Amino acid sequence: MGTGSRMTPPAETLAAARQQFFAEQKVPDSLVSRTILQSWIRCSQLGHDATRTPVFEPLEARNLREKKEQHERLRRLCRAEMQALRREARATGGIVVLSDPDGTVLDADGDTTFAGKAAGVALRPGVAWSEASIGTNAIGTALYERRPVMVRGGEHFYDPHRVISCAAAPIFDPTGAIMGALDLSSHASVMPLHTLSMVRLVIDQVEHRLFDDAFEELEVLRFHADASLLGTIRECILVFDDKRLVAANRYGLKSIARDWNAIGETTFDEVFDAPSAASNNDNALRFRNGNVVHCRSTPRDRGISLLRRVDGGRPDHSGLNGQISGGHLGGTGPVPWPKPAFDTQTAASLDLAIRLVDADVPLLIQGETGSGKEAFARAVHAAGDRADKPFVAVNCAAIPESLIESELFGHEEGAFTGARKHGAKGLLREADGGILFLDEIGDMPLPLQSRLLRVLQDRQVMPLGGGRAIPLDIRVISATHRDIGDLARQNQFRDDLYYRLAQFTITIGPLRERADKSMLIDQLWDEVSRGQSHLPADVRERLAIHAWPGNYRELVGTLRALAALAGAGQAPLQQYLPPALRMISADTPATAPSEPGLLQDHTRDMMRATLEACGGNISMAARKLGINRSTLYRHLHRPDLVQ
Fold first, then answer.
1. Fewer CB under 10 Å: which end of the chain, C or N?
2. What are the residues facing 478 on neighbouring strands?
């Protein structure tokens, strides 16, 4: 799959290439582009058979709705461009397709006649068009290659896909994570040569809008050698936080001869011959190589740091959308679980967990209900070497015992009464290539424990109803609020499965044991309120004193309710507190670890020591503490924290 407006090989040349590769197992080096050839090789290694009809498994309606909700921001960002491309698609008898980062089609629209043919080859919402799922195609290969790709007719891996030609390009967020892909598909014989350029143009528009009002608290540098292109989608954009590059667009990176790996690593001084962009009053900026560009800079300092470090240098993009898994810009509504500010011990455990899971060592997380076990697991996934692969969470206590076997292992068509018409893939296979998170593993029925053990040992899964065993590549994280070792001693949990899952155990302490609850509450309040309201000091103190039997889940739920009610009327915010918190008075004794005096001393000492270690650099100290700069500023200016 080459890029740009390359010519498709003549039909006889493409036929010869397919004959050599698929029938004779030869490498047709000179007959197809290297991109196509490399994709064919990858697909063959994945076990695809081009002589067979490809098998596709569309998501069920409920799962497709959830997938669309998950990527609602992406869908909304692309809506105008989808409409523009739809007119082009209808003019050429084709359809425009939007996929998520895994290649699953979210939306498809265009010529209704061609749409019927496209549906016949599975080009419809709910179907995964990754290379691993459906062979060489523009969407899947563009996502794999991380660049625009065109695939025409017989260049597709599977024979049935010869009827279509496709042009697709990935959509990048400002930190280089792939948000999804946009594709234009039509009859194999009619796709114009300029189609891929048109797709790239509309994606430039989408990516350019991602910077609108997104980094008001940081220094956004917009520049171009041609002053007339400032403010257009062709302008170069770099975003700096204390002179460190934290976001960019593709034009900006190209202008400084860097790729996405420069995010979090490159500094302003390494690129430009100036103290800062704001220091240039003539709207001109000089590179270190002597070149001069026209620029506009919007320096701000509202105290919110975009980039946090999770693994001593690995960027965590969760600050972009408030979600642990990160990587993609999420929706604009309240997030379901704001990122906990892990304490020092848990942060150290996170570093260990990332290294263990990357090394394929099964991890068991223990902790009370609501203590953040899944949030911790998602943080491990977001910072690990499988961050761009699936994270599949399974609550073993929530799935009915009668369904958990088919939900986990999948089933063939007709495997049992009520089985889905085309069978089901199963959650284990959904996690293939990524991380499987088994929550409340202590509640898994004993009969299924032996099957799970076999899967983990053999690294393959056999769906219910027979069929062949399917290879499986997963990393496993388990979690429980129960003592699995004790359950094993009581013969309520298999010893061999326990030893397989608990090769390393990490315990997350309950919220009531944290000595820095006040600082934590401030950070969570910033996230759930989006900085739009103030948390009164007396409310904060009541929240800090409370024991929180429901841990983070209970605290976050309370804060979200308060954020929604802030400014709702004349009543003070404390009147909206749950009854147990309204009864707390100023002289109510706190639990020992959270006594206000100890809390204040610990918070003060932690902040001052970190700030001193960072040479007085507020932003660096905030990153090390894992809090927003606004939170650190506020605490440093509270009377109880000032000497």
1. C
2. 364, 438
Three-state helix/strand/coil letters over 266-297: CEHHHHECCCCHHHCCCCEEEECCCCEEEEEE
List, in sequence order, every beta strand (DSSP E) within 55-177. 94-99, 105-110, 149-152, 164-172
Query: Per-residue b/e over 449-462, b at no fewer than 16 CB within 10 Å?
Result: bebbbebbeeeebb
State how far the Cα of 129 lies from the Cα of 335, in Å rounded to an integer. 28
Residues 6+ apart with CB under 8 A from 638: none
- State the Cα–Cα distance between residues 68 and 126, nearest whole angstrom: 9
Structure token pair of residue 195 = 């189609």
Residues 377, 365 contacting (CB under 8 angstroms) = yes
**What is the arithmetic mean of pLDDT over 87-111?**
86
Q: pLDDT band at 319, cuts 50/70/90?
A: very low
pLDDT, residue 332, reads 29
Angle at 444 between CA 379 and CA 490, to 5 degrees: 110
H or E stretch at 610:
helix 596-613
Other C-beta atoms closer than 10 Å to the C-beta of 492 total 12
Contacts of 36 (CB under 8 A, 6+ apart): 1, 2, 136, 151, 155
Produce one character per residue of 327-356: b if its CB has 16 or more CB atoms within 10 Å, e if not: bbbbbeeebebbbbbbbeebbebbeebbeb
Calpha distance 420→422 (Å, rounded): 6
Confidence class for position 16, pLDDT limits 50, 70, 90 = very high
Q: Name residue 297's beta-bridge partners.
A: 221
CA-to-CA distance for 437 and 427, rounded, in angstroms? 10
> How much is the pLDDT for 599?
40
Which residues are 36's β-sheet partners?
none
Measured distance CA(165)–CA(7) in Å, rounded: 13
Contact 82, 76 (CB under 8 A): no
**Dihedral sign (CA 20, 23, 26, 32):** positive
Query: What's at 46, amino acid-wise?
Result: L
More confident residue, 93 or 108: 108
Read off the tokens for 604.
Answer: 């003060």
Q: Report how far residue 531's alpha carbon sits from residue 303's, in angstroms, rounded to the nearest whole number.
A: 11
CB 136 within 8 A of CB 40: yes
**CB-CB neighbours of 592 under 10 Å:** 10
